[in-house]
Input
Amino acid sequence: MTPMFNPTALLRLQMQMAIMTMEASAVIWMRMMGMAGTWNVAAGENGRMVREKQRAFAKAAQEASVAAMQGRNVGAAALHPLRRKTRSNVVRLARRGPKLR
Output
């Protein structure tokens, strides 16, 4: 059975995508609250959210290409850099917390 059609690998990929979607939703919420002035965000957060996507998607494309050449699961390889970025963002932004004054 190839890695691409392994049911366990597909389920794992689906779960990672679901977690990434929830993390991305939380990041969007915290950044929107930051724009509204109710969440503590760094001064350069708006620029950061644009730049990081370019880097993450370029890294995802690179990882997917390498995985394809090696016969590995392309979806999992592409998702890994994206999930790493959403996870780091949600941790970083949640740590800053809401503005209480």
The chain has one domain: 3-96. The helical segments are 7-36, 45-70, 74-96. Residues 7-36 form the longest helix (30 residues). The mean pLDDT is 93.
